[in-house]
Design brief:
about 80 residues, alpha+beta, four-stranded mixed β-sheet, 2 helices, globular
């Protein structure tokens, strides 16, 4: 996929709900329309991140498998 992003958030080894909490906190650092990448190892992030995006008005752009983790991409709403 190789999607470009403006903000990289490392949430590896954090368990639910910490990856989404870290994502929500760090999104304040970028402007509306910019893209964030969240890297997580918690399998629940596959459910939590799209749900968070839907609830908070962000656009979930997809996910990409990484070495032992998953990268989730979203556009700040």
């Amino acid at each position: 996929m190789g999607m470009e992003y403006d903000l990289d958030i490392d949430a590896r080894d954090l368990l639910c709900p910490l990856p989404v909490l870290r994502l929500r906190k760090r999104l304040g650092r970028i402007e509306t329309g910019q893209v964030a990448r969240l890297v997580a190892t918690d399998p629940m992030a596959a459910v939590d991140v799209p749900h968070f995006c839907a609830e908070a008005g962000h656009v979930f752009l997809g996910e990409e498998a990484m070495d032992g983790a998953t990268a989730y991409f979203l556009r700040k709403g």
